[in-house]
Amino acid sequence: MSKRFSIIVPAYNESRLLPRLLESIRIAAIRYDIGSVEIIVADNQSTDNTRQVAESMGAVVVSVEKRRIAAARNGGAAGATGEILCFIDADSQIHPDTFIEIDKAMSADTFVAGATGVYLERKSVGLILTYLIMLPLTWITGMDTGVVFCRREDFAAVKGYNEALYFAEDVAFLYALKTRGAPKNQHLTRLSGVKALGSTRKFDEKGDWHYFPIIAKGVFMLIKNGTKVFLRQDDVPDYTDYWYRPPR
């Protein structure tokens, strides 16, 4: 039996932070209609007890062998039954009114997809400046992060997340949906009032200023190599180590 919402959580060794997210989803589901929400955890070759934690908290666990975030998102979506697919990172936490507000947005034909945005888990000068650097991009493009959502048929039409990409797959996904919606005068939406928690785990591990050289290197490599910077692991070992070899 299909649900109104499927919320999909890609997870690799997330047993420590996953309970925080799943509890926030449970609260939001109760506030909306708990029978209309299913939780899918896409276990991406975890070596800890991520599966056991997820199952103990009522999530459906789907195993995804391909070690790539786009593949984990797609694998979770393949096991979902919801009319609206939502995607959120395992180290996050969602707002209690998330499903209510997404339902309002997607009940009309105005929007093809959207996101809730995020607030920072903690603040510092380095984190705030990093956030401010990224903010104009969201204003210009209409793309954001947090809980990303779209209709099932639109997800299928754009063939989900691009599994050739090692990172920036979320940007490519929203761009594809934006392109799909344009002929029907449908837009991306950035919801207000239901921001998800934006984890600062990477900043805790690597320092509050570490993202600036990453941004600079990324711009340089885009100029030098074009978009293949996102496609070949050998071209950007520092980046793939950053995203795919976390110390957890």
User: How large is the count of helical segments?
Assistant: 10
**Level of helix content?**
40-55%
Poorly predicted ranges = none
Q: What's the β-strand tally?
A: 9
Cα gyration radius (Å): 17 Å
The main sheet comes to: 7 strands, mixed
| Overall average pLDDT | 90
Spatially, the strands of the biggest sheet line up as: 3-2-1-4-7-5-8
Distance between the termini: 36 Å
Structural class: alpha/beta
Shape by Cα distribution:
globular
Task: Describe what this molecule looks like in 3D.
- It is a single chain.
- The protein is of the alpha/beta class.
- 43% of the residues lie in helices and 17% in strands.
- It is built from 10 helices and 9 strands.
- It has helices spanning 18-32, 50-56, 69-78, 98-106, 125-141, 152-157, 169-181, 201-206, 211-225, 237-244; strands spanning 5-11, 37-43, 60-63, 84-87, 111-115, 118-120, 148-151, 187-190, 196-198.
- The protein has a 7-stranded mixed beta sheet with strand order 3-2-1-4-7-5-8, with helices on both faces. The chain has a two-stranded parallel ribbon with strand order 6-9.
- Helix 1 (18-32) links the parallel strand 1 (5-11) and strand 2 (37-43).
- The protein is globular and about 50 Å long.
